[in-house]
Amino acid sequence: MPHNYQRVLRMLYSSPWAILPEKLEEIAAFLALKAQGIKFSEEEIQERIGEPRAAANQPSTRGSVAVLPIYGVISNRINMGANISGGNSGTSVQKFTQQFRAAVDDPQVSAIVLEVDSPGGSVYGVHELSKEIHQARKQKRIVAVANAQMASAAYHLGSAADELVVTPSGEVGSIGVYLMHQDYSAAYEAEGIKNTFISAGKYKVEANPYQPLTDEAKAALQASVDEYYSMFVKSVARNRGVGVEDVRNGYGQGRMLTAKKAVDAGMADRVATLDEVLKGLGANSKAKNSGMRSESNEMRARRLRLLEI
């Protein structure tokens, strides 16, 4: 269904993102090929967009410590992530929230570690989850570990923990929001194709990709980006216990910072490996499945079907 990927591409270019720009470009290029009907194996998908295998993106426990992974591109719902990557990978806000609440409510869990390796993702659902993580600090100790990348939407989530740790080779930051817009009008004109919209509602079809972007439409898109950025900055300020202007005028201003620089800037608390963090929390060295069901045969079959689309 190449048409399905064309729809996802349109969504990609019309939605605000809190993600590393280069990662979104990789995803867009990948989806453009899928829209042309080109098929990829799971290994080729990993090579192109760096998404983790679904089996690796599962919660685990080490003694009384729950380790919850935030890997790959973050999306609000499971099906959105599947459409973007072509498989069942990345992190769904919806699914992660369920896992997080289960760990918070589990009396046998004394602490929660968020293991993060993500370039960020969609803005949708992230603000709400960040707030929930921050509020859960009243119930259990929560530590976020950048192992090794915690960018944009992933930092929005990780900053909500009691403590934010960066591995020695890790990096955090990319605090910002952006939106891509593509104008196909010149390309279509060259091919003799003219698109005409029949619509109701003054702004219903503004910022469509088949007509040049008007100043009014651009201003509306900028206002949307500014609103999500303001939410992002205020959340980080609350999470880190600093002023909004400290985040807006510091904290990398959209750049990624390496471990020591992130600590010096107040974006992280210390540099340590995941194993060192777990040891400090009294966790066992051997990981066990947290009890969440592994990928079922039905889910695996569905994922493989998606790979064939």
Task: Note the run of SSEs as H and E.
Answer: HEHHEEEHEHEEHEHEEHHHEHEHEH
Number of helices: 13
Name the CATH superfamily classification: 2-enoyl-CoA Hydratase, Chain A, domain 1
Strand content: 15-25%
Instruction: Give me the Rg, rounded.
Output: 20 Å
Note poorly predicted spans: 292-309
Number of strands: 13
Give helix % range: 40-55%
Class derived from helix and strand content: alpha/beta
Sum up the overall morphology in one term: globular
Separation of the first and last Cα atoms: 6 Å
Task: Please supply descriptive tags for the structure shown above.
two-stranded antiparallel sheet, 44% helix, disordered C terminus, 2-enoyl-CoA Hydratase, Chain A, domain 1, 309 residues
Task: Provide an overview of this structure.
- The protein is of the alpha/beta class and 309 residues long.
- It has one domain: 2-enoyl-CoA Hydratase, Chain A, domain 1, CATH 3.90.226.
- It is 44% helix and 17% strand.
- α6 runs parallel beside α9.
- The radius of gyration is 20 Å and the shape is globular.
Summarize this, please?
Helix content is 44%, strand content 17%.
List the helices and strands and how they pair.
Elements: H1 2-14, E1 17-19, H2 21-35, H3 42-49, E2 60-62, E3 65-71, E4 74-75, H4 78-85, E5 91-92, H5 93-105, E6 111-118, E7 120-122, H6 126-136, E8 141-151, H7 153-158, E9 163-166, E10 171-173, H8 185-190, H9 215-240, H10 244-249, E11 256-258, H11 259-264, E12 270-271, H12 274-280, E13 288-289, H13 297-308
Parallel strand pairs: 3-6, 4-5, 6-8, 8-9, 8-10, 9-12
Antiparallel strand pairs: 1-7, 2-3, 2-13, 10-11
